[in-house]
Amino acid sequence: MKKTSKIMSLVLAGAMVLSMTACAGNTAETTSAAAKSQETAADTASKAEETTGAEASESETAAKAEGTTYKIGVLQLVQHTALDAANDGFIAALDDAGIAYEVDQQNASGDQSACQTVASKFANEKKDLILAIATPAAQAMVGAVEDTPVLITAVTDPAESGLVDTNEKPGANVTGTSDLTPVKEQIDLLKQLVPEAKTVGVLYCSAESNSKIQADMAKEAIAAAGMESKEYTVSSSNEIQTVVQSMVGAVDAVYAPTDNVIAAGMATVGMVAGDNNLPVICGEAGMVQNGGLATYGIDYYQLGYMTGQQAVKILTEGASPADMPIEYLPAEKCELTVNEETAQTLGIDVSGLK
């Protein structure tokens, strides 16, 4: 098992079906390497014309020199490890495709009204393509933008969240990727690490439909594993400490799905839970790194990269979001992540995990 900063990760083997920054007023403009090098590309094309037998190379270089610089807007709900990774992966895919672009990065800092403000801004600016990261950001963007292609990511069930007609055939101008995580396997992991657990607290933000879906799945899996569940919700990050403290003595372990509010406040969750000997199984690796015990989770960088590949198809090949199914990371992209320091604090043996 590979260990980095006391976090160890390994790729799961076998089949697992369906795997999950500055306030909105600030703008970060980034120009792609391709756009910055257009002048250089033009010079290269001119020189290439002097070389016989290089017609294909000339054509490709000229296309880059004369190609469009795409205007892309990105709205990220809040800054935390998973969403940051998805954003990075998206940009990497654009760079790898060699297209010229300018990206307007906006972060709503977890504020739904800020999401709506940015959505209106992007709609008025007539971007070539928009990326919305996390469900509340996606809902704001879909409600404001009708004609521009909108890609969404870090959304558990786009259809259930009212973002597309169906996940198989989205319709309209929206498609993207889902971060649906292997909830059942995460609960199985909890049972393996805390075999004596009888009651599991399910912790999430009630304002996120993404989290409610996962919480319901978790409660079913908890019951199937012969345990009871208790639901604990917060409406904002200000309630996290109080709610987690209320779990002490009432539950034997905690499950927190890929919830953006909980993920952003995971340091607080980990502190209170650790002080009271409560193991926390999380929805994604970043939450484990910030105080959770373990997870089987998806790679958000790869999720973002896959979304970026969709963007390239839309921008350069004329693909229609309406006909592009919501995509999911394959099972082999799931990873086991364990926080050894947390395990040691809790006195839990993780040496037998595979």
UniProtKB/TrEMBL annotation:
Residues 51-62 have a biased composition (Low complexity). Coiled coil: none annotated. Residues 37-62 are annotated as: Disordered. Pfam families: ABC_sub_bind. Residues 1-24 form the signal peptide. CDD domains: PBP1_ABC_unchar_transporter. InterPro entries: ABC_transpt-TYRBP-like, Peripla_BP_I. Keywords: Signal. This is ABC transporter substrate-binding protein.
